[in-house]
Design brief:
The relative contact order is 0.16. The protein has 247 residues and is an all-alpha fold. The protein has one domain.
Length: 247
């Protein structure tokens, strides 16, 4: 079975919109929006750091929801499990970007790439948890066993997200509290900065959707290839046995 592309007109539209909005975010972030009065130009990392964190949360929640549907249907259909796995892979990618951009921002703001700060530590733990989830998905060659084991982990792992989000409130943290949704905070973003930030969220959401669609399609093809390969091996073995009996 040869497939040249997993793209469709829908994914091409999503990809085109993602590229267009991402281009606007890059131009606005580097050349249009003002520097921060305290952090200076280092605040421009925010336009990548904040959206990647939000989309990582979205990806992991999507993994949990898809896993929940998979459990509810007793894994009779593997579509939900494939979406869960694809979403987790993309989520790990975005969480890695969050850690990298956060480290760069920390170097410019705190003078060091890493602090064992509550927000940073819990975020790293969340990242490692989902790397473990992806590793578990590769243990079983049978897709239904894969779905059964990984769904339990996904439903437990998503409980870490509130801990990460509220870590700056629960413990003393160097990391600032939310500056977008927190109307009582001291940090204020002007209209253009806020618009650019939300544009980044939209762009990264489109990228997330585009990647998940393509990744779950590849997983579907991989599962089908495994089944077809197994059927072909059984057929060949039966043919060998038939030939031996005849002889």
């Amino acid at each position: 079975m040869t497939v040249s592309s997993t793209g469709t007109p829908t994914t091409r539209v999503i990809g085109g919109l993602a590229l267009l909005i991402t281009g606007w975010v890059v131009v606005s972030a580097f050349f249009i929006t003002p520097a921060d009065s305290v952090q200076g130009d280092s605040v421009r990392i925010m336009y990548a750091h904040v959206p990647t964190a939000w989309i990582a949360y979205l990806a992991f929640v999507t993994t949990a929801i898809a896993s929940g549907f998979s459990v509810a249907r007793r894994h009779r259909t593997l579509g939900f499990d494939r979406v869960a796995g694809a979403s987790a892979e993309v989520g790990v990618l975005f969480m890695a970007m969050t850690l990298i951009t956060g480290s760069l921002w920390g170097r410019l703001t705190w003078g060091t790439f890493w602090q064992w700060d509550p927000r940073l530590t819990t975020t790293l733990f969340l990242f490692v948890t989902y790397v473990g989830y992806l590793a578990v998905r590769r243990i079983d060659t049978d897709p239904r066993q894969r779905a059964s084991r990984s769904s339990v982990i996904a439903l437990l792992a998503v409980l870490e997200i509130p801990l990460v989000h509220f870590s700056v409130v629960l413990w003393r943290s160097l990391h600032q509290e939310a500056s977008v949704l927190n109307t009582d905070g001291d940090v204020r973003l002007d209209g253009l900065m806020l618009f650019t930030l939300f544009s980044g969220v939209v762009a990264f959401t489109l990228i997330f959707v585009w990647l998940v669609i393509h990744r779950q399609r590849l997983t579907t093809l991989s599962d089908l290839e495994r089944v077809v390969g197994l059927d072909a091996a059984i057929t060949a073995r039966r043919a060998e046995n038939s030939a031996g009996v005849t002889a």
